Amino acid sequence: MPGFLDPVNLLNSFGNWVLGGLLLVVFIESGLLFPLLPGDSLLFTAGLLSSQEDPFAPIWLLLILTPIAAIVGDQVGYMIGKRGGAALFKSNDARFFKKKYIDDAHAFFEKYGPLTIILARFVPIVRTFAPLVAGASRMRYPVFLLFNVIGGIAWGAGVTLLGYFLGNVAFIRDNIDLIFILIVLVSVVPIALEAGKRLLRARREGAARDAEQPAPTESTP
After folding, report:
1. Alpha carbons 104 and 156: distance in angstroms, whole number
2. Which of 124, 147, 176, 209 measures 20 to 30 Å from 31, CA to CA?
3. What is the pTM of this model?
4. Which pLDDT does position 14 carry in this prediction?
5. What is the dihedral of CA 106, 109, 114, 118, to 10 degrees?
6. What are the distances in angstroms from CA 114 to CA 85, 141, 166, 194?
């Protein structure tokens, strides 16, 4: 893998500033629209290293600071979406940032509730853009803040603890990439189901519109 995607190499690259580098990566991936960082495996590796002799940081400190970095990162992402979302998602003619996406996201948040903010934490790439969309779709800030805190603690502390307790289990350590792929697949099932429902609904609506159109009349000579 590229160096910045290898969690061990990435942590080593920070030299004596491993803890600060870890927190910076968590913050960037959570709120600065740069999703190509190994958030899950990085936290797991950090937890694993904290269980070794002479760790770069004690586990109790990681359990405090990593959720804070994740929560603050999401706050920044929300504010970026709230202040710049209207300009970014201003037209339905745009190639990527269509206004319709924000309208759909707002409806999705209204239907399924802010629980989506927690679930998004465990899906790479999605967790980077979820706060942006929440802000751009004008999700109520007190609600976002509450579930952002819950999600930040569950992800930041939870994955780190998994590394601390399970990282020394040979099977888990040797198959960590596969395990995280399975976690991602399970996490995206609700998204895939919703996408399938939307596709079927769009097809039914298109078929209904076609059926309502009058048949062309033949002209007489």
Report:
1. 28
2. 176
3. 0.70
4. 75
5. -100
6. 19, 11, 30, 16
* pLDDT score of 20 more than 70: yes
**3-state class (DSSP) for residue 167:** coil
In the prediction, which pLDDT does 1 show? 47
What does the mean pLDDT of the chain come to? 76
From CA 25, how far away is CA 218, in angstroms rounded?
67
- Of the two residues 16 and 132, the one the predictor is more confident about is 132
Q: Which residues contact 141 (CB under 8 A, 6 or more apart)?
A: 78
Task: Give pLDDT, residue 116.
Answer: 80
Q: Rounded to whole angstroms, how far apart are CA atoms 23 and 30?
A: 11
Q: Which of 8, 139, 131 is nearest to 71 (CA)?
A: 131
Q: Which one-letter DSSP state was computed for residue 217?
A: P
- Closest by CA to 91, choosing from 80, 76, 81, 103, is 103
Q: With 70 as the cut, is the pLDDT of residue 132 above it? A: yes
Return the exposure string of 52-82: e unless at least 16 CB atoms fall within 10 Å of the residue's CB, then b.
eeebbbebeebbebbbbbbbbbbbbbbbbbb
Q: What is the CA radius of gyration of the chain?
A: 22
* N- to C-terminal Cα separation, the chain: 72
